[in-house]
Specification:
Chain lengths: 252, 447
């Protein structure tokens, strides 16, 4: 299988403080990788660096995505190339309806791919289809992006956007946080339905419960800015039982 | 007193006969009193609290020409003005520079008894009617209003008799078109008798590359149970200075809704002062100001709750880019006895650069004890986390900025009741943000 993403010795800082201290990670097409680890280990930093958040500075290392130097691309071009982040804390955008927001996003991508803008009819049909995938209320689609949404609605809206944009590599950053068990199931089922043989996911989570629905192929433990352990799905169960302290002790 | 006023005082003294000879007696009868008042104070200085952030006197310092002899402008307003509002049915009249213009081809039949036309002509033909209203509010206005009364020679009158509804929008298009520096003094008088209804759209345009300064005094009387919307769209040029004063008198159970949009300008001061003089009167005054380059936009508002049971609401928003300056001062004055007043004022401002300046001064003065009043003002930048969120979804940074600015502005435009105007403004605002305004098709003003 071809490598979709290769992260080599990635170092990154925020406000001069080093958070990532040499990450190495390879993801092949079709794989689901889980990244687990205690709070403050750098999981969200890694996802933010991958999508090009301006607050972070890469100081060393490289990231090759689909054979391209990912770090040279603007955040929007990374998106157009199929990189998607389901945010841990989705942002509220008052005054911008989900419909207008998605239309702008879809047409920007089509322009990048040198395709014609989508017709209004096709766009609305697509919206309807994808909304059904995550049970997103049609009334929400006319509201401002995430404004006044419950925690569960915000996360469903993230997966709805993922469905609309059909990414090649999706990063789910604690998509399970703040979800009750029903919402978790809906969101996870949505993610599973979107899976294709050529798409990959990075699932960042603290808990086993999301990974009961979204089965990872490979599980990594991130601690203190480095991946300190990589194993198969059985590691999830072990972490659930033993916690992270033994890993922290081994890596002092 | 010092500064530029002396020249204007002399000019007025020397040309009094010329000014009077072109005008109706009613207009002339108010000049002396205005002159005395203007002489006493001169132009406002920065020591005047209301003008602290808007240095107006120096704007009068340019050697402007004034068309005191009323030479006719060599333009046909109807042919140069193509930027109309699609699908808007309107009765359209023109003010070219500061003269009423008889442009043809747009006037529809008005309901019986409605008077729409030249202030100077109607002051001559209907002196008894206008005597009751002309300069009644402006007589106590500030020194620029007095300046306007001294020199004003024409403008527009709209009179709507009782129980009359004017369905179609009255569109008053002001054009500045001259090849020399010009100082213009315009005057609008709006009288709605009881239970009447009208919508007015004021379009202020300039194609002028030379400096121009226009003063505008609009006096508005909204009778008992009457309802009036005034939409004021400024789309002029960097070379234009505008000092506009709107004075509104509202009787019981009347409704007044005002929205002032500064799309493109040079140096602008808008003052609006609303007196709620009858129980149950309701007023809503709103504004959107979009500035860039070195533009200056000042909105001063005053709502006087003089009696009980009135409501007022106010929403002003500014989007300031580059080195532009915004000034907002809004005062709600709840007088003794104005019980059960409900009054709300909101001012929100975006400064897109570190060079943009916003001066905001919300004020509440309450002398009654059973009222519900609130005010709030904020100055901020575009939400960086929202911008990044949009970029992650593939929306380019510039586009994301425009979407956020457009969303911010949209709240003000939503208050506009005339759907075609609302749609037109949405397009114009979007173009403005993209830097495309002034390129609309087929308009000689937009070269």
């Amino acid at each position: 299988m071809e490598n979709l993403l290769e992260i080599k010795n990635l170092h990154a800082t925020i406000d001069g403080k080093e958070i990532l201290k040499g990450i190495n990670l390879t993801i092949k097409a079709g794989e689901v990788h889980a990244i687990m680890g205690p709070n403050g280990s750098g999981k969200s930093t890694l996802s933010n660096v991958l999508v090009g958040h301006p607050a972070y500075t890469v100081t060393e290392g490289e990231v090759i995505y689909k054979g391209k130097n990912l770090l040279e691309l603007s955040p929007e071009d990374r998106s157009h190339e199929g990189l998607f982040l389901s945010f841990q804390y989705p942002v509220e955008i008052p005054g911008v309806s989900i419909t207008n927001f998605m239309r702008a996003a879809i047409n920007a991508k089509r322009e990048y791919l040198k395709q014609e803008p989508m017709s209004a009819g096709d766009f609305l049909k697509l919206m309807r289809e994808k909304r059904a995938l995550v049970n997103l209320d049609s009334k929400l689609a006319n509201r401002s992006v995430n404004e006044g949404f419950s925690g569960g609605e915000k996360k469903r809206n993230e997966i709805f956007q993922m469905a609309m944009l059909e990414p090649t590599l999706s990063i789910l950053d604690e998509t399970d946080s703040g979800l009750d068990i029903d919402a978790l199931r809906i969101v996870a089922e949505g993610v599973n339905k979107l899976k294709r043989p050529d798409t990959s996911s990075i699932v960042i989570t603290h808990y086993q419960r999301l990974l009961d629905y979204i089965k990872p192929d490979i599980v990594h433990v991130l601690y203190n800015g480095r991946i300190v352990m990589t194993a198969g799905p059985e590691l999830v169960q072990e972490l659930e039982v033993r916690g992270y302290d033994w890993i922290k002790n081994e890596n002092q | 007193m010092m500064g530029n006023e002396q020249e204007y005082i002399e000019l007025f003294g020397q040309n009094r006969e010329i000014i009077d000879s072109a005008c109706a007696a009613l207009l002339n009868s108010k000049r002396q009193d205005a002159f005395e008042r203007f002489k006493a104070t001169g132009f406002p200085t920065r020591k005047d609290e209301a003008w602290r952030n808007t240095p107006i006197a120096k704007q009068f310092g340019i050697d402007y020409g004034m068309n005191l002899k009323r030479a006719e402008a060599d333009v046909n307003a109807a042919t140069i003005f193509h930027c109309d509002v699609p699908n808007l049915k309107s009765h359209r009249v023109y003010i070219v520079n500061d003269s009423y213009s008889q442009a043809e081809g747009y006037s529809r039949e008005l309901p019986q008894g409605v008077i729409l036309g030249s202030l100077n002509a109607i002051a001559a033909s209907h002196p008894t009617l206008l005597e009751k209203y002309y300069n009644r509010l402006a007589a106590n206005g500030d020194s620029i209003a007095q300046f306007n009364t001294m020199f004003a020679q024409d403008g527009v009158v709209l009179y709507v008799p009782r129980n009359t509804v004017v369905e179609e929008t009255i569109q008053i298009v002001s054009l500045i078109q001259a090849n020399v520096e010009m100082l213009l003094n315009r005057r609008i008088l709006v009288i709605l008798e009881e239970n009447s209804k009208a919508n007015i759209l004021l379009c202020d345009h300039s194609s002028q590359e030379k400096q121009s300064l226009s003063t505008l005094v609009t006096e508005v009387f909204v009778g008992t149970g009457a309802s009036l919307n005034i939409y004021d769209i400024e789309e002029t040029a960097n070379s234009n200075t505008r000092v506009a004063t709107m004075l509104v008198d509202q009787a019981a159970d009347s409704h007044f809704n005002h929205c002032c949009v500064t799309l493109t300008n040079g140096f602008t001061r808008n003052s609006i002062s609303v007196a709620l003089n009858g129980r149950g009167a309701d007023t809503s005054i709103n504004g959107l100001a979009i500035g860039d380059k070195t533009q200056h936009i000042d909105n001063h508002t005053l709502v006087d709750h003089n009696v009980a049971d009135c409501t007022s609401s106010e929403l002003y928003k500014y989007i300031l880019d580059e080195s532009s300056t915004g000034v907002f001062a809004g005062k709600m004055h709840i007088h003794p006895g104005a019980q059960r007043t409900v009054s709300q004022q909101t001012n929100r401002n975006l400064c897109l650069t570190t060079c943009a300046h916003m001066y905001a001064q919300p004020q509440l003065e309450i002398y009654a004890d059973d009222v519900k009043c609130s005010h709030g003002s904020t100055v901020g930048q575009l939400d960086e986390s929202a911008l990044f969120y949009m970029q992650q979804r593939g929306i380019p940074a510039d586009e994301a900025r425009h979407l956020l600015m457009y969303a911010f502005a949209g709240e003000v435009i939503e208050n506009i009741d005339i759907v075609p105007l609302k749609e037109r403004l949405h397009i114009l605002i979007e173009k403005r943000f993209r830097g495309e305004l002034g390129k609309c098709k087929g308009c000689n003003l937009c070269k």
